[in-house]
Amino acid sequence: MSTPVTHPGEPILQVNDLKKHFAITGGLFSTITGFVYAVDGVSFSIDRGETLSLVGESGCGKSTVGKAILRLFTITEGQVVLNGQRIDELSSAALRPLRKSMQVVFQDPFSSLNPRMRVRDILAEPITNFGLATNEAEIDERIGKLMDKVGLPRDAVNRWPHEFSGGQRQRIGIARALAAEPDIIICDEAVSALDVSVKAQIVNLLCDLQKELGLALLFISHDLAIVEHMTHRIAVMYLGKIVEKGTRDQIFSAPMHPYTKALLSAVPIPDPDAKRERILLKGDVPSPINPPKGCRFNTRCPYAFDRCRSEEPELRQMAHKHVAACHLHDLPAAENPLLTGTIKNA
Q: How are beta strands 316-319 and 31-47 bridged, if at all?
């Protein structure tokens, strides 16, 4: 798989202390009885031309982050800044022209495409909505170039979505996102529903398009094996919070949080003769309705001690561009299992 090239500069997207709490209602009068703390204070930025991967187990809140950024629902607290402009407080009418800069590729390439529209109409819709062409000839020319970019024949524009394979439908989804000429694309588990060989093709396509167009990508995924080949930086989420952020090399070669270390221990190794100790986590992810006190990972962490159960750790600097939230780093280096390489299975 190809590796993208960075284009440093002012962040295209800035997320500050983002929170999304879903109310739980019950009873005759729909009284609020509690909240689901789906996202509970997430912050990150993405530079132009950069890929940030948001990773974690199912239910950790990563897809909710993507939907909150896209304003598919109202956020509880925090800020979302796109191209230097805060968008979380804008009305739908004020936000509409800014949606051109931020597009999305969804997980299921079939359900995200209107089955009653031909491919030409699917791709023409954003071009028309954002006034990117003045007549049918210009629209057709743009659509033809989009099909070229995603590796589909131009004459396929007259076909229906059900006439394509899953990988081809995802290429159509990518073409639809590109049609608006965005600065950033949010890929919400964009390859998880595809076969292994097709995943690699779509990831390579995204990397090539990024290099060609200078796109920024927020790549939401649970598949670290895919993430390793196409990202610049990684943010690891657990139960609504980011527990570690760093460059790809930092995360994969020197993880500084037990949860990250456990996730990486489960990634398949290409070399069949190589050995890796698997870190087994006890129990299931706790409910976001009633997250544990202290560190949210303490109920499953093989290294948890008393402080972890009472005091929530804050993200702290480990190295340049590398932060982690773990009390283990207050221990002497010789006693820190993350630094000594000690494996303790729960």
A: unpaired
pLDDT (0 to 100) of residue 340: 82
Residue 127 tokens read as 């071009």
In the block, which residue shows the tokens 């109202």?
74
The confidence band for 29, taking pLDDT boundaries of 50, 70 and 90, is confident
| H or E segment and range at residue 223 | none
Q: How far apart are CA 241 and CA 321, in angstroms?
A: 18
Residue 48, token pair as written in the block: 């132009």
Q: What is the pTM of this model?
A: 0.90
What residue ranges do the domains of the chain occupy? 11-253
**Tokens read off for 253:** 């070669």
Give the single-character DSSP code of 251. Answer: H
pLDDT digits over 105-151, tens only? 998 888 889 999 999 999 999 999 999 999 999 999 999 999 999 99
Among the residues of 130-240, which ranges form H helices? Answer: 136-149, 166-179, 196-213, 224-227
The residue written with tokens 């970019």 in the block is: 149
H or E segment and range at residue 304? none
Which tokens hold the place of 181?
């000429």
Class of domain 11-253: alpha beta
Instruction: Identify each DSSP E strand in 152-223 by its residue range.
Output: 184-188, 216-221
Calpha distance 291→47 (Å, rounded): 32
Question: How many degrees, rounded to 5, is the angle at CA 199 between CA 235 and CA 250?
Answer: 30
Q: Measured in Å, how far apart are the chain's first and last C-alpha atoms?
A: 35
